[in-house]
Amino acid sequence: MTKDEMKNFILQGTFTGKLGTINKDGTPHVVPIWYTVDGEDNIIFNTGDKSVKAKNIRRVNRVRLCVDDQTPLFSFVTIDGIALVMNQVKFTNGLKLLPQGTWVILSQKSMVGEIALKENFW
After folding, report:
1. What average pLDDT does the segment 11-39 reach?
2. Which terminus of the chain faces fewer neighbouring Cβ atoms within 10 Å, N or C?
3. CA pair distance 37, 69, nearest whole angstrom
4. Torsion of CA 111, 42, 47, 58, to 10 degrees
């Protein structure tokens, strides 16, 4: 997938992403999130200030996000990046003002994706 194809993929429909962070004991912590993308291609999502993912990101800010289309053969995009937790801020995404709260900004470091060729599945 090209970078433009990957960007279009994560912006289509209402997908949830699966966010991976690192627990204090080194084990993975993976949770579903709803997200949006800002004008600078950062992934933005909200969380509770005291949530496990917020605590993990504050301690180790390297994260991975996987977005898939949830239909066999499961096309997907995986994004590795650096996350920053910000409290009590407002974001504007396009024309929409997102509510004040605890938000996470994921700056993309790398992005890979694969489009499953469903027409060749059967």
Report:
1. 90
2. C
3. 17
4. 80
